[in-house]
Specification:
Two copies of one chain form a homodimer.
Chain A lengths: L1 H26 L2 E7 L5 H12 L5 E7 L4 H7 L5 E5 L8 H7 L10 E5 L16 E7 L6 H4 L1 H6 E7 L11 H11 L4 E4 L8 H22 L1
Parallel strand pairs in A: 1-4, 1-5, 2-3, 2-4, 5-6, 6-7
């Protein structure tokens, strides 16, 4: 019976996610649903990205958090429009929460919208918010066993950012094993080694993002 | 309406948790609900604890995981009874899941039962499983902003283990600020600085556990 309730919730969410997706498609906005554990470095990656790309891409951010606006405050420093969604304890964002705040964004003049989800390696992967792709950030300090333990989020994500690689020398993280597990779960996934502290690999991340944004624009122009 | 469903689920869970708790009380077993993000070091802390205390305490472990038995396999090496619960994607353990496996444990001959929850800093804090106390493990690599961002789990926990302090020199984690935030959320909480890699602080953790187990035994004997 509880499963029935869950299916109803997911079905309704998919409906609203489709509505969001159609709106984004009409405006040619590429939307990224950014997920990962608490402290994996999602906001740090976004900060780097804002600083590096804000002159090339018109960006906005929706920040999901249980109660605070700590991450939104960090993003706002980069002069990028940011909207805070507080889930009041809810463990993930859903399509309805995102839909509610979309009117506050100037979608017409936007290239990239990043939705930073609540820090959680489980629930966010189950709920589409209307994004083009999902991305998962995994800190190497979390351990190389995490892909097999939390497979859904890697299966759902188009890219996995293995973050904090500057700490590799001080941990027993097996990079080859982690990559093998991630690609066994999802053969088509992109995997990047990144450190927001040392800036290792961030260029590859920017390139990946810029390509995705450009591809979305082309697809929209082709249909429009 | 969704909130109503949530309240029903929580109400039913509390009922089953009480049943578990009465059973544990009758047998004099101290039960710890061990929570924390993926990769915070819950299983590593348990491994240290098994190795150090298994000659003094009769222990058993219930391992919660989405799909795998990776953590149970690690615990089983210490010759401690371990039961795996796979939640099939569910983001936390609940009282019903724990109740179902209790018959497989020899509660009569047990001092300490540790329930290692699914790696998640949000949902596990909302569901009692019948434990005496909850404990939260936070890796310092997750960042010092996490207590204020995930307050419920710190409010619900009797002890916060700040793990991986061997990595402090390589991060910008502010220990004083983190402790201040944790105790502002929950003034009576115990806070320990621990490293399972360097064994810093593990003795204080063992002492805390041993005291709790002894207190439970005394309380049960006083009532028996």
């Amino acid at each position: 019976m509880e499963i029935q309730v869950m299916e109803d919730i997911l079905g309704r969410n998919d409906q609203l996610a489709s509505e969001n997706q159609m709106l984004f498609a009409k405006r040619g906005v590429f939307v990224l649903n950014l997920m990962g554990s608490p402290g994996s470095g999602k906001t740090s990656l976004l900060e780097k990205t804002m600083a590096a790309l804000k002159d090339n891409l018109r960006m906005a951010v929706i920040e999901g958090d249980l109660f605070t606006s700590k991450d939104a405050d960090r993003i706002a420093k980069y002069d990028v429009p940011v909207i805070q969604i507080n889930t009041s304890g809810g463990c993930h964002l859903d399509a309805a929460m995102v839909q509610k705040v979309l009117q506050e964004l100037d979608l017409e003049n936007l290239d990239l919208l990043v939705v930073e989800n609540v820090g959680n390696l489980v629930c966010p992967a189950e709920f589409n918010v209307g994004e083009d792709v999902k991305a998962v950030v995994l800190s190497i300090t979390e351990g190389d066993d995490k892909p097999l333990k939390y497979p859904l989020i890697f299966k759902e994500s188009a890219i996995a950012v293995l973050n904090k690689v500057d700490l590799l020398p001080y941990t027993n993280f097996d990079m080859a094993a982690a990559k093998k597990d991630i690609t066994s779960i999802h053969p088509a996934i992109s995997v990047l080694e990144v450190s927001c502290t040392s800036s290792t690999g961030v260029e590859a991340w920017y390139d990946w993002l810029k390509e995705k944004v450009a591809a979305k624009k082309m697809a929209v122009n082709a249909h429009g």
